[in-house]
Amino acid sequence: MDPTLQQQHFLSLPRPDALEGPQGGAPDTSTLAAHDFDVDTRTGFMPPQQPLLRLPEAWNVWEDVLEAAMRGRLQLGGKEGVTEEERRASEVWREGVRNMPILPTTPLKSSELLLRRAHLVLAWLLHFYIHTLPPSHPPTIPAALTLPLLRVSRALRLPPVITYSDDVLYNWRFTKNTPLADGHGNPTLPTVGNIDAGTTFTGTRDEAEFYLTSARMELRGTDALEVMRGIMDEVFVGDAIALSRVTSYLLELASIIEDLGEMLMRVKEVCSPQVFYDEIRPWFRGEDSSAGRWVFEGIERDESLERPRELSGASAGQSALVHALDVFLGVDKYSHGPSGASSSSSTSSSTTTASTSATSNSTSATSTSTQEQPRSSFLKRMQEYMPRHHRAFLNHLANSPRPLREYVLANSTTANPTASSEEDMARGEKLLEAYNAAVQALKVFRDKHMIIVALYIVGPARRAAAAKAATSAFVPPATPSATSSATPLTATPPASTPSGAPSAGATETHGEKKHGKEMRVETRGEARGEAEEEGREVLKGTGGTDLVRFLKSVRDQTRGALIPLPEA
Ligand code: HEM
């Protein structure tokens, strides 16, 4: 292997410390250099150092107001049963936001870490502000929040809204007893076992664990990035030994993706679906699932600022990790190709959608100018919500001069039936199988993701809609059978956790076969999705998609990337 390739490899480069700035007169590569993708060889897309937990004194007002929102346990403005006292507390808090001085943002630009923290704080303030408003109130954002938020967002080239980086990547701290360095003074790195979540809307353990599930998957994903780097190096070398190594690496990648799926499923053990649906998820909603166009007061005071075109809510669909796997395996053209895009863009029209819940966790039907714009594919759209370095990383992967899928096709027996020896044939076939194993693992990951979505969104939404229908139709006698006979939930899993969520056994998977062979997994969520297609309501993801249709199409298209095995 060429040692110079390794040294210059983008994943091998040390990550500059944005706090320390440029070293010894060297150019600052922390933000601008094309080869800095802010991907750490030890922690992947997660930063290796604990994110800043508080801005310096000059920005105390923002931090204090955020702390007050968390301490005050502010309630969603549209939540049923909000008391007058809670409404008043929210109003007092919002008054505090309106009265904040307009703090300067220029000094924050000296450091990427300051900007990140500022984006986090301001975006959380924005969501607290918007979502504590009573539903009848127009969603207006006061100038004291508008101006710094738009300025900081512009500096980071991020939308002025909570993104996955604000609730996962840069929203963690070390657990209480974790030392910040080892005995030799080496800074402690984040691991699946030593981090806790930072800011939350609800103060619940469920919410913290929801973010931590993603954060831990990101950390495990570091191994996938490492394997990807190994494969790229071997593909560059390109000889027979390299081919065998690529094969082994691909099998390793498949097993890492399987692990990611397992980690995702474990969210059920730590975050109640009903708490997620009723109490956590509504806070993430962006403008495109709100009941009106967000008004950024004061924007006219700064000519350099533009009204954001699109503001989707936070979604793990903004994690660069799964997208990187798609792009690297060459699955993106299948998984997020035209059909996946169209299911996303289908939601962009002024579709009328029924409210699925009496809470603000609705699939509201507003036609904003944002929604009228044609949308690009979900992948492209979500990249706008990723830190720009990670966006650049995906771009870099997409423009690899030696795409893996082409390499596999060229070396597999399918594309190369005239391989010179039986040994070559066997090697090519193994490579193909290993590639398919990785694609299949990604498809299974998406099956699992759909199970989670069925459990956390589709089920609770249907139950909420049924309950609403039952109460609005008539007031039934208080017998246990009254509700069930009035709901269309005969297919809804009856088994429940204490929180009322369907239990793990309530979703079904069957018929799985491993490694490249065709597989069919049915989930009840999928069945519900089909019912929805025929029925009344369209459930939207926080990323603005018609979620069931979209996720199903992404999953099916991933399967479409499998390369058929040659006829025996
Ligand atoms: C309770 C947990 C979760 C729920 C309820 C959930 C829900 C959703 C929904 C509704 C979408 C549709 C897109 C949209 O937002 O409009 C989506 C997309 C997506 N989610 Fe999740 N998600 C969860 C956890 C995760 C985790 C932990 C990851 C990985 C870190 C993840 C990765 C993705 C990806 C990559 C997409 C884009 C579609 C795809 O590429 O398959 N999700 N999710």
UniProtKB/TrEMBL annotation:
InterPro entries: Indolamine_dOase, Trp/Indoleamine_2_3_dOase-like. One of its GO terms (cellular component) is cytoplasm. Residues 518-530 have a biased composition (Basic and acidic residues). Residues 341-370, 472-507 have a biased composition (Low complexity). Pfam families: IDO. Residues 1-32, 338-376, 472-541 are annotated as: Disordered. GO terms for biological process: 'de novo' NAD+ biosynthetic process from L-tryptophan; L-tryptophan catabolic process to kynurenine. GO terms for molecular function: heme binding; indoleamine 2,3-dioxygenase activity; metal ion binding. Keywords: Dioxygenase, Heme, Iron, Metal-binding, Oxidoreductase. Heme b binds at residue 449. Residues 1-10 have a biased composition (Polar residues). Belongs to the indoleamine 2,3-dioxygenase family. This is Tryptophan 2,3-dioxygenase. It comes from Ephemerocybe angulata. The lineage of its organism: Eukaryota, Fungi, Dikarya, Basidiomycota, Agaricomycotina.
